[in-house]
Amino acid sequence: MSDRQDHQSSSSADNEPLALDIQHLTQVFHIGKGWLKAGKPLRAVDDVSLQVRNGEVLAIVGESGCGKTTLSRLMLGLQSPTSGKILVNGEPLVDVDRKAFARRVQPVFQDPYSSLNPRRTIGEIIMDPLLIHNIGTPQERQARVEETMEKVGLPHRMIHSYPSQMSGGQRQRVAIARALVMRPEVLICDEPTSALDVSVQAQILNLLQQLRDELNLTYIFISHDLSVVEYMADYVAVMYLGRFVEVGPAREVLTKPKHPYTQVLLSSVLTPEPESGLPHIDLGSGFPDPLNPPAGCRFHPRCPKATEVCSESAPEKITVDGSVVECHLYSNGAAATN
Amino acid sequence: MSGGSVINPQDAPVLEVENLSVDIRVPAGTLHAVSNVSFSVRPAETLSLVGESGCGKSITSLAIMRLLPKAARLSANKVLFEGQELTQLSEKEMSRLRGNRMGMIFQDPMTSLNPVYRIGDQLEEIYIRHKRAGRKEARERAAYLLEKIGIINPGQRLTQYPHQLSGGLRQRMMIAMMLMCDPKLIIADEPTTALDVTVQVQILQLLRSLQEEFRMALILITHNLGVVARMADQVAVMYAGQIVEAGSSTDVFRRPTHPYTRGLLDCIPRPGQSSARNKLGSIPGIVPSLVGDINGCSFRNRCAFAHDACSSGKIELRDLQQDHIYRCLLPAETIAAAAQETV
Q1: B196: three-class secondary structure by DSSP
Q2: To which H or E segment does residue A57 belong?
Q3: Residue A35 and residue A270: Cα distance in Å, rounded?
Q4: CB B254 to CB A231 under 8 A?
């Protein structure tokens, strides 16, 4: 993934277009806007660029309020960005062909209890996208629903069941089937397993891996659980207050985190090791107000390694060992000491 | 683990539960939500009830506090809290204990706080009610506790409404509220599940330090094995309403024995050990229905080591070593050897 190192590059040097290519995406909301009142700008997503190739999994991690969900809404075309571009397989997403776009990028949401209509059968729920997009004859649609159900491991007899008759894991399989029935290229999975029990979570994660191999799917995997991310992702992007502070190959980011924020996130992962006790988190004050983001580096008020320069100027993107990091520790070629 | 230093084994348990069962009437018959659960917690000790949804861990905690729904029937040989038999108390006597001697923290602080009252009013109400104190005294106590739990500018926070606080702050407020009357037992049901990972660690640290300072017993209910491993002194793994394995946290995590405990631990991706191409362990199938008579081992349909004998009779808890018990017909060595083969 050489092009990823050049974070600012517009497209891959390879012939194959990128499954998803996001360039300098920015979304600004105006809070408290009224008649004759300008409102305060909130930069939910701030100059985010990312490239994902076919069949790859990019995980986006960060705390609540960091802009993960806004970014996923932008990638789904549910919202138009203030500036920046999103290309799917080389073609730009524009408002006009939203419907065509929706065929190629599909969501899987966190909570399978609220994302499925309780009054419709599983068959109807999975068929819906086909009806909306007017795909195939009724027989073809039926066949496609049955085929997709089989793919995600739902028994055929459930086609007339209602969501309330199913377990959480089965519901999430329905949500995945509903996304896959369109034969999309990209799946945006927003915390797809955090509402599930651990044994079921493992089943769903294994299913997602297996589907990706079978169908050459590309996933954008949004999660706050770093151990799940390590299992799923090829690439990891760490988001803080609307910006990607570190992007790189999963192994690199998760074993040798560069950005102090990534380091803190990783140290708060609780593995089942009773000897280790609770980690000590060095994160000073609480999450900053996104309406008044700190000057300079946005992480500096909470950063255990902040120096003077951090409060004065925002760090540039720098490539360190294959990861792109926004941190002053790495500018001027100075390597950070951990 | 780290709580170990302050636990005195000579102390009498704060809570002793023996053969607690909860049956719930449902249209299809009787649902055995909790069957013959026994455990005890001492001052400053943390007991973790761990298991997946529907395993009965939350019902167990509600049963202790006598907050079960009307359709539920509680039976127990003993639910002894500070020497009082809770099952014998009247509703009025119970409500004097709840929030006073026993504190509770729930998963979602937004739904446990009243959105139309100021934080301060909600904290003070408990104290005024249980301690028959005046408003001023209650306010002082609230401000003291907020400072204790690391809240800057407590005076201002007390006048705010729940929606003005972040998730982590709200959970801190719940902890402060629970501390108002200086309880001896805290029951925390998934206290950090709704929080971010960094906030989770901070809240757990806070609970741990308060617990040591005030020597409170903590019953921590969670499905997160990472939280259990780092917090608990004692662990009880629950499945389908029964304890299937229990022991000290170190023993259970070092030598998981029941096939369900082993399966659960295999399901967790671990940094450095799992990579995208290694399949995660998973437990096939789903939890059995708890309606009707329970015969044999309730895990047998999902168990890789199940055999004919597992489907009938009552499976008893057996000793693995001192204070480490598990509910399985197979000897621990057989399970360990069989698990080695399947890998």
Answers
A1: coil
A2: strand A57-61
A3: 48
A4: no
Contacts with A256 from chain B: Cβ below 8 Å? none
Residue B90 confidence (pLDDT) above 80: yes
The CA distance from B254 to the nearest CA of chain A, in Å, is: 8
Per-residue model confidence (pLDDT) at position A292: 83
Per-residue pLDDT of A68-83, as tens digits, reads 889 998 988 888 889 9
Where do the domains of chain B lie, and which CATH numbers do they carry? Answer: 1-101+183-273+285-294+314-333 (3.40.50.300), 110-180 (no CATH)
pLDDT computed for residue A285 by the predictor: 59
What is the Cα–Cα distance from A149 to A151, expressed in whole angstroms? 5
Domain spans of chain A, in order of start: 2-333
Residue A257 three-state SS: coil
Minimum distance, in Å, between the CA of residue B311 and any CA atom of chain A = 23
Residue B258 scores a pLDDT above 50 = yes
Q: Which of B174, B61, B192, B68 is nearest to B126 (CA)?
A: B174
Residues A278, B167: C-beta atoms closer than 8 Å: no
Global ipTM: 0.81
Quick: pLDDT tens for B199-230. Answer: 889 889 989 999 999 999 999 999 899 999 99
The CATH number fitting domain A2-333, selected from 3.40.50.261, 3.40.50.300, 3.90.1150.10, 2.60.34.10: 3.40.50.300
Nearest CA in chain A to B225: A272
Residues B73-97 as b/e (b if ≥16 CB within 10 A, e otherwise) read ebebeebbbeeeebbebeeeeeeeb
pLDDT score, position A214: 92
Mutant choice from A111, A167, A231 vs B, greatest count of B C-beta within 10 A: A231
The verdict on A274 touching B (C-beta cutoff 8 Å) is yes
- Determine the residue of chain A that is closest to B270 in CA distance: A227
Q: Do A268 and B253 touch (CB under 8 A)?
A: no
- Cβ within 8 Å of B, A 152-181: 167-169
State the average pLDDT for chain A. 86
CA B213 to mean position of chain CA atoms: 20
Phi and psi, residue B170, nearest 5°: -60, -40
Query: What pLDDT is attached to residue A5?
Result: 42
- B229: nearest CB among A209, A268, A272: A272
What is the per-residue pLDDT for A259? Answer: 95
Q: What is the least distance, in Å, from the CA of A256 to any CA of chain B?
A: 11
Q: Out of A25-29, A91-95, A315-319, B303-307, which region has the weakest mean confidence (pLDDT)?
A: A91-95
DSSP 8-class letter at A335: P
Cβ of residue A63 closer than 8 Å to a chain B Cβ:
yes
Nearest-by-CA chain A residue for B274:
A231
